[in-house]
Write a structure and sequence with these properties.
Radius of gyration: 27 Å
Strand content: 15-25%
Distance between the termini: 52 Å
Shape: globular
Helix content: 25-40%
């Protein structure tokens, strides 16, 4: 807080300007370090409006926690996982029936118990054992009227917050026992619990945990060696069995493949090159149907493409953020593999820039790629058939696609680099697709590699 009334928030070497406020608002804001009751700035006065504006700006950056307390003791602390999160209590009537979402889970984190869900915008740190007991009871459907007779009023306030966060779901008569209801979205029926958790926690956008090369265990355990120590026993030297002739073009491609993170923006990739690249790596080569009328099973359509795919599902789709391509306007495009065409998707310049900036940071590059390819999965295409292993199969398919992209780029004299993470929430906003219906599982930067400077 500065003398002129300006307030900034600092975290991890970054600073965010929050605006300029009156002396009274600055004084009131100081109480945020220990806790400021929501009711204290809920009015319509000038001071209340200023504090409310400041608090919402902090919330918009994910820099607030929310405490549910009783007699000055914290019962629950709500920790946002999405920057836009703001606590809301959903309305509950005595006749409503609620049950814990099958995606919600209670676990130990350090010395705390936390309730979280891949669907929720926040996690809940639980400090009252009675709340944990109430949550356990909600593994089976419960009527609110019955809960009101046995639970404290603060616990009922929490139930409204949990319902708004999709930790709890409200059941209708047709939902039965609630053991595998669609939770308001039929696409969620196709997800196993562990798959959705892994998808949301191994990508950016729906949690606030550290991501990437944080070297979390440095100083705790030593790094493993680059090459595994050999097993004891007699070795069979394979070198003497290798042919001495020239290596094949494919073997040469494998050896020449490497990641290129810096691109020559004076000589961008052309639309013709992009068309060749996509046609070589991802185009649908054929389509057919099987099942109906043969073994009594459902009719299923299949396609063949240049890379292998688990069960022939070919659930992966390519979305291109074009930043610098000759003869192609900047923007977001979907590659229609069936008709070998690009379809423009309406998105904002700010979102496109955010996508590119994240890629630059992930690659530790000097500038953005010319084309950023997001590999997205139509999750239901795999999980409709496979249980327990669906998400792992998707990741195996991503590996096949990335190697195909690398080798094709190398063969065409272009540069490419796989990117280890992507923001699933940003992609959802750009495309309008729900994160659990179709979302990012990989990224690949493409462009014409910058030639190293010649000394002298």
């Amino acid at each position: 807080m500065e003398a002129d009334g300006s307030i900034a928030a600092g975290l991890g070497g970054y600073s965010i300007n929050l605006g300029q406020f009156s002396a009274a608002a600055v004084d009131r804001a100081g109480h945020l370090t220990s806790g400021l009751p929501l009711a204290s700035f809920a009015g319509k006065g000038v001071l209340a409006r200023q504090v409310h504006a400041l608090v919402r700006r902090l919330a918009g950056q994910g820099l607030l926690e929310y405490r549910l307390s009783f007699d000055e003791q914290d019962l629950v602390v709500i920790e946002p996982q999405l920057a836009e999160y703001w606590p809301q209590r959903a309305k509950l009537g005595n006749g409503d029936t609620i049950v814990l979402s099958r995606f919600a889970y209670l676990r130990r984190r350090g010395s705390e118990m936390v309730l979280e869900s891949p669907r929720a915008g926040a996690l809940f740190r639980i400090f009252d054992p009675a709340i944990a007991a109430t949550l356990a009871a909600l593994s089976r459907p419960q009527k609110i009227g019955k809960l009101r007779r046995h639970a404290a009023s603060a616990h009922l306030d929490l139930l409204g917050l949990l319902l708004d966060s999709q930790m709890l779901i409200k059941l209708n008569a047709k939902d039965g026992d609630g053991l595998r209801v669609n939770e308001g979205d039929g696409n969620l029926v196709l997800w196993d619990f562990h798959d959705l958790v892994f998808h949301t926690r191994s990508t950016e956008g729906r949690h606030a945990n550290p991501v990437g090369g944080a070297f979390t265990h440095a100083g705790v355990v030593p790094p493993l060696p680059a090459v595994r120590p050999p097993w004891p026993g007699k070795k069979i030297d394979l070198g003497k069995f290798s042919t001495s002739g020239s290596i094949s073009h494919f073997a040469k491609l494998l050896r020449e493949r490497h990641s290129i993170r810096d691109f020559d923006d004076q000589h961008p990739v052309t639309l013709a090159e992009l068309a060749q690249f996509l046609g070589t790596t991802a185009r649908v080569l054929s389509e057919w149907k099987i099942g109906a009328g043969s073994d009594g099973g459902p009719e299923v359509t299949y396609s063949a493409r240049p890379y292998p795919s688990a069960g022939g599902a070919y659930e992966l789709e390519l979305y291109l953020a074009v930043l610098n391509c000759e003869e192609l306007a900047p923007g977001l495009y979907h590659y229609d593999a069936g008709s070998h065409a690009l379809v423009a998707i309406d998105t904002s310049a700010q979102q496109l820039q955010a996508l590119a900036t994240a890629a630059v940071l992930a690659m530790d590059a000097s500038g953005p790629p010319q084309v950023l390819i997001t590999i997205a999965a139509r999750f239901g295409r795999i999980s409709w058939k496979y249980s327990s292993i669906a998400y792992s199969l998707i990741l195996k398919d991503v590996g096949s696609v990335i190697q195909t992209l690398y080798l094709t780029a190398t063969d065409m004299g272009l540069g490419g680099c796989a990117i280890g993470t992507c923001n699933i929430d940003l992609f959802a906003k750009m495309t309008g697709l729900e994160f659990h219906v179709e979302g990012p599982v990989g990224q690949f930067a493409l462009g014409r590699g910058r030639k190293p400077a010649i000394p002298g």
